[in-house]
Amino acid sequence: MAEGGPERNRQHSNNLQGLLRLAVEAGSVGDTAPEHHPMPEERRQWLQDALSDVFHGQLDEVKQLKDCLQILNETPGDDAGEEERRWNALDMVADLCENLDNARDFCKLSGMRVVVDSFLECADAGLRWRTAHLIGTCSQNNPFVQEHVLQLGTMPKLLEMLNNDNSDLVRIKTLFAVSCLVREQEAGLREFIHHDGFSVLMRAMQSSVEKLKVKAAFLLQNLLISSPEHKGEGSCTDAVPHKLNLPNVLCSMGMVQQLVALLQTEHDPFHEHVLGALCSLVTDFPRGVKQCQEPELGLEDILNERSRMLKDQEEFQEELEFCEQLLRACFSQPDESGMDR
């Protein structure tokens, strides 16, 4: 592992915080004209040292990225410690790339291409999950990295791993990477849909891995919440040509029926996100309401039974609210005054 990691980062962070405090103090004089006094020598020295450490820290972190890449680029051999060195290098890069600038630098150094080509689909599960975790860490809220990762053809590889990898941890970390490439990123979402990503997501929700089920359901709910402007009765090309109509996409592939089927299994905490997704599919979206009302689904009975079961159970209040919201949206009949009853 490259030297100077966590301790250097903590020192770097502390000096940045000190500089920020100094700037705030300097700007807190309000509208009054500042009085000019010579800076005390002790404070001047502290400022010089802090600035020097900030700039040195930035250079030092790039050097650490390069050191890690040198390890990751090594030709595989028979050294017993080689695998652990690569694990440590990937861990170090992931830690450094929580900084958005470092994540961009890693891509510019061709690091992302190296790990995607060499480790994402390798035989060692420890390398696979660390690579998936690194992809997610670098991509999160970082459009430059998201576009770079997508251009490497990473999405179909991630979806294949999410669907079929024999390691639960690899699948969980892969879902994290996928999430970071599709949330608030329309190009990533389009590629996700193109490679049948929602079917893969549904199979994740149907798995026996609890953490995977919860995260998959939460991602589906989040994608629907984050794209309310895409709702409408026409196709995505009819209404807003450059926008995806996500609810229509999901209704067309039978997502409502599959989500209701999940609710018919033994009660599980992840059902909260399933119900949340259904709520998003029916809010201001008549096609979703109509599908939920199909008699063969029996959704009204499921919701009434679930509401009775969850009543007075404080830990399930949000799930109960989703049940009540769905009942009002899909099964309440207006009375003579036009109000729902």
Task: Provide a concise account of the structure shown.
It contains 19 helices and no strands. Helices cover 69% and strands 0% of the residues. The model is unreliable at 1-14, 229-242 and 335-339 (pLDDT under 50).
Q: What would the keywords be for this entry?
A:
about 350 residues
The parts where pLDDT drops under 50 for at least 5 residues are 1-14, 229-242, 335-339
Distance between the termini: 65 Å
Report mean pLDDT, rounded to a whole number: 83
- How much of the sequence lies in strands comes to under 5%
Structural features, described:
With 341 residues, the chain is mainly α. Helices cover 69% and strands 0% of the residues. The protein has 19 helices and no strands. Helix 8 (154-164) packs antiparallel against helix 9 (168-182) and helix 8 packs parallel to helix 11. The protein is elongated, with a radius of gyration of 26 Å. Residues 1-14, 229-242 and 335-339 have low confidence and may be disordered.
Secondary structure elements and their pairing?
Layout: H1 5-26, H2 41-72, H3 82-96, H4 100-108, H5 111-118, H6 125-139, H7 143-151, H8 154-164, H9 168-182, H10 186-194, H11 197-205, H12 210-225, H13 236-239, H14 246-252, H15 255-263, H16 271-282, H17 286-292, H18 299-310, H19 317-331
